[in-house]
Amino acid sequence: MTERFNRGLWALAAVLSAAVAIFSYRYLPRVGPLAPNVIQNLFHQPWLDVHVAGAATALLVGPLQFLPRLRARRRALHRWLGRLYVTGCLIGGVGGLVMAFGVTAGPIAGVGFGSLAAIWLITTGQAWRMAMARRFDAHRAWMIRSFALTFAAVTLRLYLPLLPLLGLSFLDSYRLTSYLAWIPNLIVAELYLRGAVVRRVGDPEGALPTA
């Protein structure tokens, strides 16, 4: 039952990630509906393209890294996808950090998005460092934290249309979402990791689950 639930949860996350990533690529050629507050960012040229290219690619690739069969049977592919994911996160994080200084919703939102970008860069860097040191349990834990922040691109788009239903203005909703999009994700990731450690202590033969 737990395995089926985990698979369903992964499938939902993968579909949402792919949908948001593919839809976000529209910003590169500037086609389709474009959010005015994003286009009006003071640093959208060229940093919006940098952020979208990196972040959307990381979001598209990320879920594949949590497939146990891919890690076990296609290790070379797992490593190359990991390099692509990390590169996407680093590029997207730098672009997002620069754009945080030019957000049109003011300094409150700027701090929220800037903090997301900075912590995203740190967690991804740690994940890569642990992989290079062959500390794979730590690598998987940091990768979970990293993808929780990558997934903020999805949760942001879930919260934004819902918060106005509570009577908030779009500006207030956007400011709140700059924190709400990623802090709960990171909390859930930490709770999951703590539970995984407890389960592993009870089952020394098991591996830290990542999917």
Structural key phrases:
211 residues; single chain; mainly alpha; globular
Word description of this protein:
This protein has 211 residues and is mainly alpha-helical. The chain has one domain (2-202). The protein is built from ten helices and no strands. Helix 5 (75-100) runs antiparallel to helix 6. The longest helix has 26 residues, at 75-100.
Helix content: over 70%
* Count of individual helical segments: 10
- The low-confidence parts are 202-211
Distance between the amino and carboxyl termini: 14 Å
Q: Can you give the mean pLDDT?
A: 91
Counting copies of identical and different chains, the oligomeric state is single chain
Radius of gyration: 17 Å
Q: Biggest β-sheet, characterized?
A: none
Order of SSEs: HHHHHHHHHH
Quantity of strands, as a count: 0
Gross morphology: globular
Structural class: mainly alpha
Outline of the structure:
This protein is mainly alpha-helical and 211 residues long. Helices cover 76% and strands 0% of the residues. It is globular, with a radius of gyration of 17 Å.
Question: Which helices and strands appear, and what pairs or packs with what?
Answer:
Elements: H1 2-24, H2 36-39, H3 44-61, H4 68-73, H5 75-100, H6 107-132, H7 136-150, H8 152-162, H9 170-180, H10 183-202
